[in-house]
Amino acid sequence: MNQELKKKVDIVVGLSRLAGGTLIIIGSILVFFFIQAALDPNAIIEINGVPTKDFSDKLIAVIFSALFFVLGVVLSFAPNKALDKFAIKIIKLSS
After folding, report:
1. Which of 75, 38, 80 has the alpha carbon at shortest distance from 60?
2. Which of 6, 14, 24, 79 is a good FRET partner for 73, with 20 to 30 A between their CA atoms?
3. DSSP code of residue 53
4. Cβ within 8 Å of residue 49, ≥6 positions away
5. Closest Cα partner for 92 from 3, 9, 16?
6. Greatest CA span in the chain, whole angstroms?
7. In this predicted structure, what is the pLDDT of residue 2?
8. How does residue 5 score in pLDDT terms, banded at 50, 70 and 90?
9. Are the C-beta atoms of 22 and 12 separated by less than 8 Å?
């Protein structure tokens, strides 16, 4: 791997880890609030502008928010080799 490609790979990997950390924080906050809403039978959440108290809708919101957290953990703690291979593929596709 030449120096220019190595610099680009390092930038992509660093940004991926930064994005992962951000997703962990955002996902944690969302999951915290949606779990509270799911456990409160009087809590109202809006889905597509329609207020609802349905437990299944609240549970779907918790699961969807948890995906942000899971994606953040994967990006933050993935092995360097895996992220390097992923970054090389992205760079070669964009070139």
Report:
1. 38
2. 6
3. -
4. none
5. 9
6. 60
7. 87
8. confident
9. no
Residue with tokens 């597509």: 48
Residue 52 has phi, psi (to 5 degrees) of -145, 150
Does the pTM surpass 0.90? The reply is no
Q: What is the DSSP letter of 43?
A: -
Task: Quickly state the pLDDT bin for 90 (edges 50, 70, 90).
Answer: confident
Q: Beta strand pairing status for 50-52 and 45-47? A: antiparallel
To 5 degrees, how large is the angle CA 24–CA 86–CA 21? Answer: 15
pLDDT per residue as tens digits for the range 54-72 = 999 999 999 999 999 999 9
